[in-house]
Design a protein that fits this description.
Structural class: mainly beta
Oligomer: single chain
Helix content: under 10%
Number of strands: 7
Number of helices: 0
Largest sheet: 4 strands, antiparallel
Length: 114
């Protein structure tokens, strides 16, 4: 301009096109295996245990009590999972849930309050 100042502002326009990802047929697989905190926690008597199993792995989710007794144990394949556990027949107290895969073992605790 006439005062000798320089305008360093640059303007860009971006065109973004998003395809229909819901019906694309592409399944997005987790890149790492993860075990998340259950919710709600504490719970009475139903809780959700969320976990991911990375591509080309399978895993076993096990719920057990303080004595180490297995309450439930199930196999899962690759993917994102929300496992609904109903502790209706169990007493109040501390429980553990464990995800065991080829890449590791992950354990968390949860509390049931009836």
């Amino acid at each position: 301009d006439s005062y000798g100042t320089v305008d360093n502002t640059m303007n860009f326009t971006w065109n973004v096109h998003v395809n229909d990802t819901v019906n694309s047929g592409t399944l997005l697989l987790p890149t790492i295996t993860s075990l998340y905190q259950n919710y709600p926690n504490p719970f009475n008597p139903i809780t959700t245990i969320r976990f991911d199993i990375k591509e080309n792995e399978s895993g076993r989710l096990t719920v057990f009590n303080l004595k180490g007794q297995i309450i439930v144990s199930e196999e899962f394949e690759t993917g994102q999972h929300n496992y609904l556990w109903n502790g209706y027949d169990c007493s109040s107290g501390l429980y553990f849930y464990q995800l065991k895969t080829n890449s590791g073992t992950y354990t968390k605790k949860m509390v049931m309050m009836k």
